[in-house]
Design a protein that fits this description.
It is built from 10 helices and 18 strands. The protein has 350 residues and is of the alpha/beta class. The strands form 4 sheets. The protein has a 7-stranded mixed sheet with strand order 3-2-1-4-5-7-6, with helices on both faces. A 7-stranded mixed sheet has the order 12-11-10-13-16-18-17, sandwiched between helices. Helix 4 runs parallel beside helix 5. It is elongated. Keywords: Cytoplasm, Methyltransferase, rRNA processing, Transferase. It holds the Pfam family RLMG_N. InterPro entries: DNA_methylase_N6_adenine_CS, RlmG_N, RsmC/RlmG, SAM-dependent_MTases_sf, Small_mtfrase_dom. This is Methyltransferase domain-containing protein.
């Protein structure tokens, strides 16, 4: 019998991860009035906790929650999310660094008696997740399997932790310091795709853009390089992920650069036909799933934002067919560079 199946625990949910996590919470002390939730894009944890008596549910979802029920509020991964809570529940983050930072924030700011209960499908669990939580908690154990799902339960937050996030890196070639929260792609390193894009622009005339957008900005390296290259331009770094925009803001601040930060999906909120230059290193993974077509949403956003004659410079893995999509969605596209790994293109808005 798993701890989630103990007598007296009566909770079911369509989503097996929600079920195993909430049942574990009920079996180990119940649901308090204030709960912090991680990774709840559809609001399923929040709805369940409110039904079970929670009065306030604070939700951190790196990519943003689609719909939160009344009584739930969105937070960043910061003090206000975890302050004094006795229970943190949710899904295990998709990367170890993201889990490490989540554990660090919970251990620093939650109640000393906090229980952190995070679940996943069994095929996605690895022992290094226990180690990541163990950086910030003295006790980490796994629940037994339930509907092919399990939870990790962390208690006994370590006192006196020295904050490690955002991580700090440096790119000597660009004379830039980088700041990276746990969920940010490539961490504080110089991403190879970003390097390929910047190298391909050597000697390319991009004019004198008044508005530059780093679309899907990650840690903001392209935005910061643009702010240096075009000091009179308005530079916007935008991404849907909290970890990305928080990292980009910290990177810009560390380098004393003026960059506007916009958390939005595909540049929502940037007016149509107002942008002169877009730099884009689009993802082709959505969490653990490969989706080579997801970049098309960013290309459609670029076509909307760019003025006629405006340009988007894109880097992508050479096996992907992004060039033909850029031609179809945005306009005439020419290749700036191509290697076995990366292709860099320049597309002019028709």
């Amino acid at each position: 019998m798993s701890e989630a199946d103990e007598p007296g625990v009566d909770f079911t949910a369509d989503d097996p991860v929600v079920e195993v996590v909430v049942r574990e919470a009920l079996a180990t002390g119940g649901v308090p009035e204030v709960v912090a939730v991680a990774d709840d894009p559809e609001g399923l944890f929040a709805a369940a906790l409110l039904e079970l008596g929670a009065r306030e549910v604070r939700v951190f979802d790196d990519d943003g929650s689609e719909a939160l029920p009344a009584g739930a509020s969105a937070f960043g991964l910061e003090r206000g999310w975890a302050a004094d809570v006795e229970l943190v529940v949710g899904r295990l983050p998709k990367t170890l660094a993201a889990l490490d930072e989540l554990g660090e924030v919970a251990a620093q700011f939650a109640d000393p008696a906090v229980r952190v209960i995070l679940g996943a499908r069994q095929q996605h669990l690895v022992h290094s997740m226990n180690d990541a939580l163990g950086q910030s908690f003295g006790s980490v154990r796994g629940s037994r399997g339930h509907r092919k799902s399990r939870a990790l339960v962390a208690t006994e937050p370590r006192a006196g932790l020295t904050p490690r996030y955002p991580l700090v890196g440096r790119i000597p070639e660009l004379d830039l310091e980088v700041r990276a929260h746990g969920g940010a792609f490539a961490g504080a390193a110089y991403d190879l795709g970003t390097r390929a894009l910047i190298d391909a622009l050597d000697g390319v005339d991009l004019g004198d853009p008044a508005v530059v957008v780093d679309l899907g900005c990650g840690t903001g390296v392209l935005a910061c390089a643009s702010a240096r290259e075009f000091p009179e331009a308005r530079v916007i770094a935008t991404d849907r992920a909290w970890s990305a925009v928080a990292s980009a803001a910290a990177t810009a601040a560390a380098n004393g650069l003026e960059v506007e930060i916009l958390r939005a999906d595909a540049g929502a909120g940037i007016a149509d036909g107002t942008v002169d230059l877009i730099l884009c290193n689009p993802p082709f993974h959505d969490g653990r799933d490969v989706d080579p077509g997801m970049a098309n949403r960013l290309f459609a956003a670029a076509a909307r934002m760019l003025r006629p004659g405006g340009m988007i410079v894109t880097v992508f893995n050479s096996h992907l067919k992004h060039r033909q999509h850029l031609e179809r969605i945005v306009g005439h596209t020419r290749q700036l560079d191509r290697t076995a790994k990366f292709t860099v293109t320049l597309t002019t808005r028709r």
